[in-house]
Amino acid sequence: MKTHVRRGSIAAALLIPALVLAACGGDDDDSPDNGNGEGQQDGDGGQITLTLSENAIRGGKNTEAAEFIEDWLIPEFEAMKAEEGVDVTVNFEGAGSDDEDYKTAMALDLSTGEGADVLSLDGIWVGEFAQAGYIAPLEEVHPDATSWDGWEQIPEAVQQNMTFDGQLYGIPGGTDGRVIYYNKELFAEAGLPEEWQPTSWEEILEAARALKEIDGVIPIQLNGGVNMGEATTMQGFLPLLVGTGANIWQDDMWLGGSEQVQQVLDLYATIYGEEELGDPLLQQEAAGRDNSFLQFSEGSIGMLLEGDYFWRSVINPTSDLAPMENRDEVVGWAMIPAMEPGAGINGQDFVSMSGGGGHVLNPNTEHPEHAWDLMAFMESPEALMERHADDPRITARTDVNDEIITDEMIRFIADEVLPITAYRPGLEAYPQVSIALQEATEAVVTGMSPADAAAQYQSTLEGIVGAENIAD
Amino acid sequence: MDAAGLGRARASAFVAPALVLIGVFLVFPALWTLYLGVTNWRLTGLAAAEPEFVGLDNYVDALSDDRFLGSLYRTFVFVIGSAIAGQMVLGFIIAWLMRNTTKLIRGLVETLVLIAWILPASVIAWLWLVLLDRRSGTLNAILGTEDTAWLLEYPMQSIIAFNIFNGTAFSMLLFSSALASIPPSQIETAKMSGARTWATLRDVVFPNIRGHILTVLLLVTLWTFNVFAPFLLTGGGPGQETEIFPVLIYRLALQTGELGKGAAFSLIMIIINLAIALIYLRVLRERRQS
């Protein structure tokens, strides 16, 4: 009897924390008000602490950016401020997670009124963050920002990346473009030309069928599925969609499960269906995108659709993700063709998609002036030259681009791809629509018919934006 | 009825801190979740700034949503498979087999099982990812099953195995001490009357440890129902095949940002938890009275 009682109370003691945890677990998911971070603390003697957040981490994702921030930007900025007689310390809060997880973390930080003073955001998040009241127009947070001399160097189209509802929310960090990368060695082995430029989807498939003959080679990696996140939409679905002549958002309407959507899904079905020109399992793996990078760098993927990020930060010989020592000799690139010549949007033969992020000021920052100085310093010619000297990309500033883009690949993006590119709609609903598109591709990759997947997408879309906002 | 002679006021003062803690950490979050569950609150966008009252829509949606019902079913399979059939049975078998072994073997086995329990779930998840990896996984190397993507082809089985590995120690420990509490004379008597293992278990062991079995059953069920670690292995995928309840809530609330719906689902989860806990407390009380 006695032992029973005692055992019971021990078990009850074990049970109570379980209940408390269950309750807290529920709460953590929902309540943003329990953040108890202290935020920025001003030490005595007027010392100012700023925090900078970016999805970059030394030795991992975007390591070049993290190294630059820690080794050059912060010391230089602190020294610059010290000369002005201000004691500033900058903390870098790096992350190395999937973009979607980073976005969640930033939204949670900002929703509690905390978070870094300066943070990087993808351009397509600006709308939903602004509507949630997490970020505010630059001229409200720091009115002097409008008189920055850098603005005249940043083209209107690039400024659009950080604009919502006619208001500028941050400094854009540049833009990019999408192409088909291919492995020249594998192409040679399959009897394909070394200088290759397909002019229709059929020619991509023909090349894939030729590559299929080589043992152990996955002919093509076309991102699909939800695990790849925005990379599925941006590098997979949308570049194909604009190749059918349709935009996901046109004439103030969203595109439903239309003929063009089906055409794109048909291509997914051809690639991931019976012919197995791509690897359907890879699309569903939790780390599928990273694994596809690795496999391309190891020479077991023939073609891969990606942005210039892939060239700069993934297979760059100095990268930590999937470095390719012989990148410059082995990797070729081609523009993404429309379904057929002239079938793309605006009657184009070739298409691409572009995006870009930037930095915003936290509206709750205690030191908007210094935080702005940090942000502007990051986008100064001096800093951009330092940052991109060995790692060129298309920055937001034309004066810098003219000097740093020496890399043949990046030059190709700037000269050939940007003129024909398209942008995503910066609308609040877009991220949800994007997930619906990813789900449609996933359905096809795992065997659903394109027609059913298109119908499923249509009904999901109706739930997001309402049937009245969908074009047939 | 004032055995301690405290008086009402002083007695209240003594329980007040506990009640405040329970209020702050249990009652308030539950009520707050109840409130959030009737809004369309989102992580971002307009509905983040000005959530609207939507009544019971979230709950109605839940009950007619295939994803919700599917997740409930998968959670059920997961609990039966990993908690009851897995952790409990395996825990008992290990405890039973270790009864008469040498101290060395017993210590070794128990240490290994305990390590699997004590290590953080993230570390264990990493080990399992390496084990089950499609291209260079240990399991494929051992079995010679090259290029088998275990986490994609056998997702539910994989997370069940993972959870059994991770949580068997508790059952094992509890059953070990339970077995030690059986009067040796009863087992000896059974042996002398020629009872086989199964008969001994059925007629001597189980009746003696019935209470323990119930304790393990309910606690392990409760824990497994709430466990989130399988997310680290599969992220809920492929598709929604390993989307057990906690994972569904996480994906809804934080990945797609539907906080209101996530709150409604959380509340349903709290209620299920409470139901299991109530059954448990009830059973305990009956045992004490008997």
Chart the SSEs and their pairings.
The complex is a heterodimer of chains A (472) and B (290).
Chain A: H1 2-30, E1 48-54, H2 63-83, E2 88-94, H3 99-111, E3 118-122, H4 126-131, H5 138-141, H6 156-159, E4 163-164, E5 167-168, E6 170-172, E7 178-183, H7 184-189, H8 201-212, E8 218-221, H9 230-242, E9 249-250, E10 253-255, H10 259-272, H11 280-284, H12 288-297, E11 301-307, H13 308-314, H14 327-330, E12 331-334, E13 336-337, E14 350-354, E15 357-361, H15 368-378, H16 381-388, H17 398-404, H18 408-417, E16 421-423, H19 430-445, H20 450-465, E17 470-471
Chain B: H1 8-36, H2 46-49, H3 57-64, H4 66-97, H5 103-118, H6 121-132, H7 138-143, H8 150-153, H9 155-180, H10 184-192, H11 197-208, H12 210-226, H13 230-234, H14 245-255, H15 259-289
Provide an overview of this structure.
The complex is a heterodimer of chains A (472) and B (290). Helix content of chain A is 46%, strand content 15%. Chain A has 472 residues and is α/β, with parallel strands linked by helices. In chain A, the strands form five sheets. Chain A has a five-stranded mixed β-sheet. A four-stranded mixed β-sheet of chain A has the order 8-11-7-12, with helices on both faces. In chain A, α10 packs across α19 and α10 packs across α20. Chain A is globular and about 70 Å long. The N terminus of chain A is likely disordered. Chain B has 290 residues and is mainly α. Helices cover 77% and strands 0% of the residues of chain B. The mean pLDDT of chain B is 88. Chains A and B meet through α1, α3, α4 and α19 of A and α1, α2, α12, α14 and α15 of B. Chain B: This is Sugar ABC transporter permease. Chain B: Belongs to the binding-protein-dependent transport system permease family. Chain B: Keywords: Cell membrane, Membrane, Transmembrane, Transmembrane helix, Transport.
